[in-house]
Design goal:
Length: about 140
C-alpha cells in the first residue's frame, strides 16, 4: 500500500487493511520506516473518514456504533506490533513504550482532523515524530 501525495489520490484502506498493512510494511521495511509509512496510511484513512466518523459515533441504530468501537482495538494492536518491532530492533530511543506510541498516535492524528490544513500538518508532524523517536 504505497502512499500517494494526497489522500484524495489514494485508495483509502479499511480498518482491516490498515491493520494488515502494519505487517506488510514490517516485512518490507525497517521498523521505524514501517511505522512512518503506516502513520501516513492512517492519515489517509482519517482524512477519508472524517465525514462519516461522527455519523457512525452518533448513530443509534444498525452497525455504525459497533463498527466504530471495533476499529479502536485493531488500530491499537497494529500500532503495538509496529512499536514492538522497532523496540526489538533497537530502532527507538530508550524508554519509549507502546503506550507512549499510542498516546502520540491519538494526539497527533485525532485532534483537529476535521479542520482545514490538518492533513498537511499531520504529515509534517509524522516526520518530526519519527526523527525524534530514533535511537541515538
Amino acid at each position: 500500500m504505497a502512499r500517494s501525495g494526497s489522500s484524495a489520490q489514494s485508495r483509502t484502506p479499511s480498518v482491516e487493511q490498515l491493520s494488515a498493512a502494519a505487517d506488510a510494511l514490517l516485512a518490507e521495511r525497517e521498523p521505524l520506516a514501517a511505522l512512518e509509512a503506516w502513520l501516513h496510511l492512517r492519515i489517509d484513512y482519517l482524512g477519508a473518514k472524517r465525514v462519516i466518523g461522527p455519523a457512525l459515533r452518533a448513530s443509534t441504530e444498525g452497525e455504525g456504533p459497533a463498527a466504530y468501537a471495533a476499529s479502536g482495538p485493531m488500530i491499537r494492536q497494529a500500532m503495538n506490533r509496529l512499536g514492538r518491532a522497532a523496540m526489538e530492533r533497537g530502532a527507538l530511543r530508550a524508554g519509549v513504550t507502546p503506550d507512549d506510541l499510542y498516546r502520540l498516535l491519538v494526539g497527533l492524528l485525532s485532534h483537529g482532523y476535521d479542520q482545514p490544513g490538518w492533513e498537511a500538518s499531520a504529515r509534517r508532524l509524522v516526520g518530526i515524530l519519527t526523527q525524534g523517536l530514533r535511537a541515538e
